[in-house]
């Protein structure tokens, strides 16, 4: 041992590296680095000859790999050559000469060297041996120096990242602690945050867990039912309810129907999972029903219609039929294909927006509502949308009852430029609902829409309905039981007609011959929108909707007339006061085309109309709204014989493959002039009357389906002989509306009923006389 006290000066760079980055497991004995330094004492210089153990430490794995270096401050320690060489032995064999004399020298990297190594570090934090060799030659450093600089730099970056992650974790812990405190506060309030049910406290420990669970479920169910009841009561999207302005004798029936919707909605709220299973299965069935040809569908030689082979249907889809169901319900199935003049996105939007859907089918839909939205869909076209809906479907006559149906609508993209929309009733998954509330069920029905990339779409429509058997007026029995009244042909024909109307309304390049009497595009749109509102109001007023109550009244010569009244208190779209609507129907041995051409011909109008008392009729506005010449909006001027009285009449004529309507109403001349100029027509009061013409269905009496037991699915009842095919005639519906009193509180009088009955009888008699038709 040396006589002089030994002074150890640890390396600043190495000590910092060891203390800040690495952790020694067994104290200073394994990794302690002691360096011999120089001590200045009294201006003299003394060198300590001590034995030091120097370990090189790698920053990558904290292993012992060599001498340590420090690069972040530009220092690098090197081993100095001992004085007198590596092995210096004295003759006296002194112990101090046995130890190797080693001395540390510190190399501080220049700013240029650090900059170059930083640049390479950004590109490659792990340079290979070749890169380190090139860099060492470029900077005048040893490869080992470069290697250690990169190791220490990586360690430094790693430490910074770990500190940053620690800060983030600490922040997350603080947030979790705050959330935990908030939840503790909620629990202490003894109230469930979701349902509002009091939680079980120590004082309520006597309540069994089963009872508490029932209480929670009860509150949830009440909340769901109340929410749906409010939605239905306030009128969900597109829901039409009886208002004071349009009240009639049918309020009780309307309330009954609304209560049915509430019951159905409340039960439905618990079945969303099963609903999704149902709509996917229904979509598969619709695609097959729309694409499979024979033997599933067979084309009739007599009528050209496609008839469902029900035996093949049962075999294909594994349908189970019960004898009780077959006795109570009749099944209608039909399929049609046509091209529609509207682009795909607009068609999808119409079907998913209940208001636009009602506007598209005014003669078919009297009421409709979205009760619940199970899935809102994705993308611009709302792929995957699932909606629970309610609708009331009608004919434009009070002689045939309307059909109420609850169903789920599912919109799905099949492939590029091809979509499908399926409707299916959900009573099969509603085990608790009363069957008496469901008079009509939709089996998978809907349409496949294919975009033809020219603004048109090819639509294949499938309508498959199971409807409760009921008594139908003799005049309409054939058309109803043939499946035409509510079948695919009527739906698709109406869609074609309305799409053409939309196209002509929005068009800006309509030829002058198709737009006579209106000089501006704004005026054209205003007139056509007024005509559309007039026709829609006519269809809703004449149909057998539950919003109306119809009474039977006998006119001249026993003419069967149905009358209904309503009070308009605030609707500015029609005159305010007490309104009387009278409807009568007749079967004529004329083709629908011939009859409609007669009714809309201005030159022959005076032959049947008795309310204007004029003989000179001239149309001065004629706006086409479809390719068929029967689809047009006209404004006529009717003058009396002495030209002392002049009346303007707005007329809207529509023709589809199933139904034709001629709707008209007298209009105020001053208001109509402003509409022609392009002003808003929404506040123009109008009270329409008119005609509806459909085929009598005698040429379509064939079995609705081919089956081994045709009596169950034939158009006629069991045991009823099939009528022979005859030349098709027409079913004419005449509707006349009049403002009985400007005071809504007034009552109907016998004189007003007699007056309306006389107009109806005279109009029908004039039509038969002009067309030389015998009474039938």
Q: Care to give the gist of this entry?
A:
Keywords: Coiled coil, DNA-binding, Homeobox, Nucleus, Transcription, Transcription regulation. By secondary structure, the chain is of the alpha+beta class. It is 35% helix and 24% strand.
Q: How would you characterize this protein structure?
A:
This protein has 776 residues and is an alpha+beta fold. It is built from 20 helices and 25 strands. The strands form five sheets. It has a ten-stranded antiparallel β-sheet. Strands 7, 8, 9, 10, 11, 12, 13 and 14 form an eight-stranded antiparallel β-sheet that branches. It starts with 11 loop residues before the first helix and ends in a 5-residue tail after the last helix.
**Span between N and C termini?**
142 Å
Main beta sheet strand tally, sense and closure: 10 strands, antiparallel
Secondary-structure class: alpha+beta
Q: Roughly how many Å is the radius of gyration?
A: 45 Å
Number of beta strands: 25
Count of DSSP H/I helices? 20
Strand content: 15-25%
The unreliable regions are: 1-93, 97-101, 233-270, 428-438, 710-726
Q: Give the overall pLDDT as a whole number.
A: 75
The dominant shape is elongated
What strand line-up does the widest sheet have?
A: 15-19-20-21-22-23-25-18-17-16
Give the key terms.
776 residues; alpha+beta; ten-stranded antiparallel sheet; eight-stranded antiparallel sheet; 20 helices; 35% helix; 24% strand; disordered N terminus
Topology:
Layout: H1 12-20, H2 28-31, E1 38-41, E2 44-47, E3 75-80, H3 95-98, E4 103-108, H4 111-123, H5 129-139, H6 143-188, H7 209-233, H8 251-268, H9 272-291, E5 297-299, E6 306-309, H10 310-317, H11 323-328, E7 329-340, H12 344-352, H13 354-360, E8 365-375, E9 386-393, E10 403-415, E11 418-424, E12 440-442, E13 445-451, E14 457-468, H14 477-481, H15 488-506, E15 515-516, H16 521-542, E16 551-554, E17 560-568, E18 577-588, H17 592-600, E19 616-624, E20 632-639, E21 646-655, E22 660-667, H18 669-676, E23 689-695, E24 705-706, H19 710-713, E25 730-741, H20 750-771
Parallel strand pairs: 6-24
Antiparallel strand pairs: 1-2, 3-4, 5-6, 7-14, 8-9, 9-10, 10-11, 11-13, 12-14, 13-14, 15-19, 16-17, 17-18, 18-25, 19-20, 20-21, 21-22, 22-23, 23-25
Helix pairs in contact: 5-6, 7-8, 12-13
Family: Belongs to the HD-ZIP homeobox family. Class IV subfamily.
Biased composition (Basic residues): 98-108
Keywords: Coiled coil, DNA-binding, Homeobox, Nucleus, Transcription, Transcription regulation
